[in-house]
Amino acid sequence: MSSHTHTLSLSHTHNLFLTHTKATEARKSSLPHPCSLSETPVDRMNSSLWSLHPSFLLALSPIPALHLSLSLSQNVVDRRRDEQSSLSDIPPFSLSLSLSDCSVQDEQFSLVFTVASFSTNFLRFPLGFLFDCFGTMATRLLATCLYTTGTLLITVSSPEQSALLFPAISCLITSGMLFYTTNAQVGNLFDSHRSTVISVYAGAFDSSAAVFLIIKFLYERGVSFHSSFLVLSVCSVIHVFRTFFLMPKTHIPYPLPDRYAYGVSCGGWRWKRGGERGEKDGGGGERKGDVNAKYQKNAVLQKAESAPLQLQDKAGPSRPDQPERVTSFRSCVLSWFFLWHLVWVAVMQFCHFLFIATVNPMLNRLANRDQTLVSQYTNAFAFTQLCGVLCGPWNGLIMDRHKGKPLAPGETKQEADLRSSSLSLFLTSLQCLLFYVCVSSPLLPLQYLTFILQVLNSAFIYGGHQAFLTIAFPGCHFGKLSGLITSLSAVVLLLQFPVLHLIREFLHGDPIYVNVGLTLLTLLTFIHPLHVHLHCRSLASQRRATAEEEVTNSGSKVTCNRLVEM
């Protein structure tokens, strides 16, 4: 699992530590535990861990983390109502005080996630500029500093200094996104499995809660949270080592130039062409001379080949020796590819986050408020979140299925990649449609299928999102485009607040009409794969027309030559 996969998993662990500390203080003062009235603090913590940890899988975005925390808090309150019959010996004042304390604590935790997530999402665009302008090393060093700062702030924090959680969680989430952005380009080293590698990173990102489970396992055996975070702080040395010795200083180009190599030589051997062993070279650093010349030529070629995907219909085919034909960032943003891809990401992300916000009330309603049954389904939902790393590569294999096959006459590698991506985009949209059909169903057992479709579709969305950007647009704009889509999607997520208000105030907690509306809304996502498919067909038609014209012209020249000879 890569370095970014555990940075989002750390924050909620500290929240549980604060809860446990307050529970200890409550026992000392003979008051009931703030978040549990009938169970011991440790029992409550262990029983709720599985229902809590999906929140830091989605801490990357503000809305799901906020509302998942609130919905789980409501689940705890519902359990208390069922247990009040056994609490007759507790004074009413203590009961109301404990409920109030838990509510205030949950609101503060939700505020931490909201502030950190929104700030991170809106910073994605300038951070994308940083990656595109200054390269991998500068971006990863900044991410390492933020990661170390975040873990150290949690290490030195306490219930009296809980305000440190605001900068700590912001630093952790931002560092995780920066690591993920720089790791995505590693797929360029594996030409035949490029999208698969990117999808593996996306799946690992979804399964980041596995690190939390390790911390939970250690905590149950007496290892304090402060010690765990101190060890994680020391692990920043691994990030530094990888930044200097296993990652390039600038960017990994695509397609790779001949004999491309980077890093420090070890025993004279160097990596080249995506993992194949290169020639012996005694020096360190990136190789100079012919490699740099070919890198520059390849960069122009890669940009020129990406440009026709957007502009060929108007400008015709481009030539590698014309760098002025490179698609500008403004042209990329104003293209139909970017617009429909933004709609594709924003709609499906909105559907997923609204599901997270309403999953606990939905389970309570379908289970007739049977908390044992609700806990069973919540645990199943939590377990499925760990399977993202297993689902991610499937999407990459679909996008890479054409690799190794000969290209059609006149077809570029970028065009072949784009044509292959249309099936992945279509399957992702179809998964989202089936996912919300299951969400709209009133059958409780069907929600197991809902959980499976949710984690599968989530892995397909983020892996396909990054892979499509690397295919359809020049690599020099990858960071900016990825950050801009994330920031704009975060703005769309603000619509959840009025939607949730509508469900609560006007639909009496039953989101069936909203779910049906979102099911119809997912049909918009099919426009994106359809547009890509039609664009590829248009390019293929242009190639055939050009080939026929060349054949006709060559035939005319032969006829003229024969007439002249006669």
UniProtKB/TrEMBL annotation:
Subcellular location(s): the record lists: Membrane
Instruction: Tell me which SUPFAM superfamilies the record gives.
Output: MFS general substrate transporter
Q: What is the top-level taxon of the source organism?
A: Eukaryota
UniProt keyword Transmembrane, yes or no: yes
The alphabetized UniProt keywords are: Membrane, Transmembrane, Transmembrane helix
What Gene Ontology molecular-function terms does this entry list? transmembrane transporter activity
Which parts pass through the membrane? 129-156, 162-180, 200-219, 225-245, 333-357, 423-442, 448-469, 481-500, 512-534
- Under which name does UniProt file this protein? Solute carrier family 43 member 3a
Q: Mind giving the lineage of the organism this protein is from?
A: Eukaryota, Metazoa, Chordata, Craniata, Vertebrata
Give the gene that encodes this protein: LOC112242628
